[in-house]
Amino acid sequence: MKTKMPFYKYKPFQGVKLTGRTWPDKNIIHAPKWCSVDLRDGNQALVTPMNTEKKWNMFKLLAETGFKEIEAGFPSASQADHDFIRYLIDGQRIPGDVTIQVLTQAREHLIRKTFESIAGAGSAIVHLYNSTSSLQRRVVFRMSREEIKALAISGARLVRQEAEKLTGSNIRFEYTPESFMATEPGFAVEICEAVMDVWQPTPEQKIIINLPLTMEMATPNVYADQIEWFCGHVKNRDSIIVSVHSHNDRGTGVAATELALLAGAERVEGTLFGNGERTGNADVITLALNMYTQGIDPVLDLSNMDRMIKVYEDCTNIPVHIRHPYAGELVYTAFSGSHQDAISKGMKAMAEGKNKKTKNPYWEVPYLPIDPSDVGRTYESIVRINSQSGKGGAAYVIEKEYGLQLPREMRPEFGRIVQDIADKTGREVAPREVWNAFAREYLGITKPYEFKNYELINKGRGIEERSSGVTIRAVIARDGEIKNITGSGNGPIHALCDALNEGCSMVFRLSAYHEHALEKGAGSKAVACIRIEDEKHENYWGAGIDPNIDIASFKALLSALNRSVRKQADQKNK
């Protein structure tokens, strides 16, 4: 069935004819030059633009993160931008290794005002642009190709003249043929070369040619073809830095930027978390951490992601989405049972690998492309529990939060208990609720049997000496009534089993036993988990915690017995 939407209104985009393209066979092997446009492109896209205080907080964050080029504003179009640039320069607030960038259209009075704003700057990039696409020429400006080129040339001349007046400042030039993707490839080269003729770049004094994806109009590979075609046809390629500035209209701004780097781009303009006009700009954080996962130094410090998010959200009033790549609240979290199991096993393998002489130097955990701690996140929130979680999730949470390592055979049973809570509440189950469920189900059952005291007697060797042949004298309460029982076995647990079988007329056998020291939150306490099989061949788990490992085991045994009795009573009542 065909859609009722009028798809016939749109025609497919025609890309550049490129044969022998090389970019598909290349890899990104180093980070590009980064330029943040948060204070210009990002700021102009805000419902409420940043004031000076917020701009300053954002500027400090960008500089601390490692951006060496920061587009500080559009001073000829905004008095607030002009004033902020003066705030930076007059207050000597720009670090010595940071260059500010200012944007201007190719119009005389705007260029002059732009240079007024940067007077006294140690270094600055003057970013000149005019729109060049056939649609913009025809609909917006109603100018011919020659008229558009003449506008760029006259703007370039004035920029050079004004720059020569600013003695003591290092002024670099950038030109953007705006709407590059929709510009005829040959004309894009022609107009850029016309500007280059004015600025006269050299390999030692390069200019920036910025080829923006002002509006995404096709798949990222088409943009990559355009970049490679341009790089292969423009003159004096060694005298220019090819820059890209991608928007996200089709949701592929990051991918388009990455393919453009393969195709020859060397510099990237973008924003934190992709803020920008319409659907946003290329997200520098995602781009940088994509490279990071490939073992490439991103040259940006993203190790304190939570702080970056806080400053960003305070400055822009835009929340970072919980599923935002690398940064979102839930991106290192797994609810799916199979994901939880894989992550848990991967984390365990990494921990075991650290203790081996032949260490694996690489991060290899399923579903986690980077180590969360690399961006300041912790492991405690990796696995979280809801109705989609499986047996591994509850076990992972209780181990990471409380140090209790559930036996593998016990995990399905406890997983069902926690999942039942999630099903009934219809929400996420917090770690404290997971622990409470464990304590309630295994540790808090003291009816009908409750452990009170014991004495171990080794046959012929004295009290408290554990070896083969042990007798136990135990005191338990049965529905509140004190009972003394005695039994023998090859160890304390088996001796107590014998005492319960004989003294309480119970029929069961011990089928599994696990114990370990709790690693955190409980001092030197030990935990024991025991499984019994009753006369009907049904299995029941129990657990006990105590500083004394024998007592912990006894409590676990009685826990399992009590759960068995409770289950049988429930079945009888039905």
Enumerate how many helices there are, as a single number: 17
| Shape label | elongated
Give Rg in angstroms: 35 Å
* Largest sheet, strands/sense/barrel: 8 strands, parallel, barrel
Instruction: Please state how the strands of the largest beta sheet are arranged side by side.
Output: 1-2-3-4-5-6-7-8
The level 1 CATH classification of the largest domain is Alpha Beta
Total domain count: 3
State the CATH superfamily name of the largest domain: Aldolase class I
Overall mean pLDDT stands at: 90
Give the percentage of residues in beta strands. 15-25%
Determine the oligomeric state from the structure.
single chain
Q: What name does CATH use for the topology of the largest domain? A: TIM Barrel
Helix content: 25-40%
| CATH architectural arrangement of the largest domain | Alpha-Beta Barrel
Q: Mind explaining what this structure looks like?
A:
With 574 residues, the protein is of the alpha/beta class. It folds into three domains: 28-294, TIM Barrel, CATH 3.20.20.70; 337-443, Arc Repressor Mutant (Orthogonal Bundle); 449-573, Double Stranded RNA Binding Domain (2-Layer Sandwich), CATH 3.30.160.270. Helices cover 40% and strands 19% of the residues. It is built from 17 helices and 15 strands. It has helices at residues 38-44, 52-65, 79-90, 108-117, 134-141, 145-165, 185-199, 220-233, 253-262, 284-292, 305-316, 337-354, 391-402, 411-425, 431-443, 492-503, 549-573, and strands spanning 33-36, 69-73, 99-105, 123-131, 170-178, 207-213, 240-246, 267-270, 449-458, 462-463, 470-478, 481-489, 508-517, 526-534, 539-546. Strands 1-2-3-4-5-6-7-8 form an eight-stranded parallel β-barrel, surrounded by eight helices. Strand 13 (508-517) and strand 14 form a beta hairpin. Helix 7 packs across helix 8, helix 8 runs parallel beside helix 9 (253-262) and helix 16 runs parallel beside helix 17 (549-573). The longest helix is centred in the C-terminal third of the chain and has 25 residues, at 549-573. It is elongated, with a radius of gyration of 35 Å. Residues 460-467 have low confidence and may be disordered.
